[in-house]
Design brief:
46% of the residues lie in helices and 10% in strands. It is α+β, with helices and mostly antiparallel strands. It has one domain: 3-Layer(aba) Sandwich (Beta-lactamase). Strand 6 and strand 7 form a beta hairpin. The radius of gyration is 19 Å and the shape is globular. The two termini are 29 Å apart. Bound molecules: 6-diazenyl-5-OXO-L-norleucine (DON). 6-diazenyl-5-OXO-L-norleucine binds next to loops.
Length: 325
């Protein structure tokens, strides 16, 4: 980073000027009191609606954070593009897409539907993510126990985040599992239609999905994960190659078309950036070849996206030419 700075080769040379804008947008969005905090489990319901954090990490490692960026939250559905990336890297897209499609579902993220081929529509909705977890659990190194598989996956998340510790919230995991009637229904429905890979242990696959949702991090670190995706799979802080560029391309393509629940089409139109939101109020945004952004604020709109997070993105592209088109 320092040598790039001396050579005047920074991706964002006027970083201070840029972050002044980010700060300005941050305060503007802070006034937005729309939305409600998820209440299906007590651990999420207890989250203050006032939390609001924004973190940025560029592809050459410049960083900026403002607000509640060190407070831990469970990454929930923001784990979906990441487990999908791991499955692509280890199994290849041909194998992965035998089990899950690439089409937006046009329905709620947990709706009880499959596509015309009796596969989940895509890996960004619950059914697809459950199947990705089944592939990681059953098809990749099947001899590994659930505990070993969890360690392996956690280690992968840490490498994406620049070898920083990622946490696990056991209370959220236990609550998710208790409140999972719909996810079990999705699982049974997929089992009825023989969607799972052979030899899958249904209970272990479901547990693995709940565990991935219950991984815990903060805005600061999730922005580094975004930067690793923005940088073609190489973490800008450690320079470690965590994912193959072709896996990252597939992940970003589906984040672009399917990452924002049933707002994905409008988000792709208005903001034009790959993003994934989670029920804890996190929003992972990737500006390819430029930066990763993490936005976190628990109040959600009626589709499940963070109100402040979406407002931030719309404001960002109105000031900067980041829309892909
Ligand atoms: O699986 C669930 O229902 C929760 N853990 C919600 C995950 C989430 O963020 C919503 N996602 N698509």
């Amino acid at each position: 980073l320092i040598s790039r700075a001396f050579k005047h080769q920074l991706i964002i040379p006027e970083f201070q000027e840029f972050t002044d804008h980010i700060e300005d947008i941050y305060w503007k969005c802070k006034d937005n009191t729309n939305g409600t905090v998820a209440s299906y489990i007590p651990q999420l319901k207890r989250m203050s609606p006032n939390y609001w954090g924004v973190s940025i990490c560029t592809c050459d490692g410049q960083r900026y954070s403002i607000g509640d960026t060190a407070i831990p939250f469970t990454i929930q559905s923001c784990s979906k593009p990441l487990t999908y990336g791991l499955a692509l890297d280890l199994l290849g897209d041909k194998v992965v897409h035998k089990f899950v499609g690439q089409e937006p579902s046009g329905r709620n993220f947990n709706e009880l539907i499959l596509d015309y081929n009796k596969k989940p529509h895509n890996p960004m909705i619950n059914a697809g993510a459950i199947l990705i977890c089944a592939l990681l659990k059953t098809t990749v190194a099947p001899e590994m126990t659930l505990a070993e598989k969890f360690d392996f996956t956690m280690n992968y998340f840490e490498r994406l985040a620049g070898r920083e510790d990622i946490g696990f919230n056991n209370a959220v995991f236990l609550s998710e599992r208790e409140a999972a009637d719909r996810n079990y229904a999705l699982g049974f429905y997929m089992r009825e239609h023989k969607c799972f890979p052979d030899n899958s242990n249904f209970k272990e696959c479901m547990d693995f999905y709940f565990q991935c949702c219950s991984l815990e991090s903060n805005c600061d670190l999730v922005s580094v994960i975004g930067a690793t995706l923005a940088n073609g799979g190489i973490c800008p802080l450690t320079e470690e190659k965590v994912l193959k560029p072709e896996s990252v391309r597939d992940v970003l393509s589906l984040m672009h078309s399917c990452g924002m629940y049933d707002y994905s089409g409008q988000f792709a139109f208005k903001v034009g950036l790959p993003a994934k939101s989670g029920v804890s109020g996190c929003l992972l945004v990737v500006i390819p070849n430029v930066m990763g952004i993490c936005l976190w604020s628990p109040p959600l709109d009626h589709l499940g996206n963070s109100c402040r997070g979406v407002q931030f993105c719309e404001e960002l592209v109105s000031r900067f030419n980041f829309h892909r088109f």
